[in-house]
Amino acid sequence: MPNKKVKNIKREILSDNWYTLNKYTFEYQKPDGTWETQQREAYDRGNGAAILLYNANKGTVVLTKQFRMPTYVNGNVDGMMIEVCAGLLDGDNPADCVRKETEEETGYKISNVKKVMQTYMSPGSVTEILYLFVGEYDESMKVSEGGGAEDETENIEVLELNFEKAMDMISTGEINDSKTIMLLQYAKLNALV
Rounded CA gap, 61 and 58, in Å? Predict the structure, then answer.
């Protein structure tokens, strides 16, 4: 249902290079009943999905490591991030997206995935909804070395880590990606590994 406290929304495209940066001008009704004009910029990159691969028997998880320019220009000394496997939906449903991204990025071909939540990761400036999944893997599912799609310049390193070590890496700051932290904590709370 539309929010009756928002009206007269106007959109201006500021950039349509990599994804779309829009500027919205709108009227918002304050608690006292008066209306004020506000402006916000919103980056639209589409929706995405991410998955934590875990092996309960071995007590391990599969994560990825790659260079992330936005973090590099904001204090991440080498720009490298340790993350769960993730990607944009690009027209796929979320479950199909994580299956495809898992094979491209990690080399594991999985079929059973479980959606555990969906979230807005940065609702003040990014429109993206991220669908979060978990999926169990084993060595029989390994079909390639992974590393990402050739045409996407990802250069991904695949990491298989002891689950407790991965949890410790949150405390040390070695893992500081929010989707990864959320999924590792989900695994801990639900005793998956």
Answer: 9
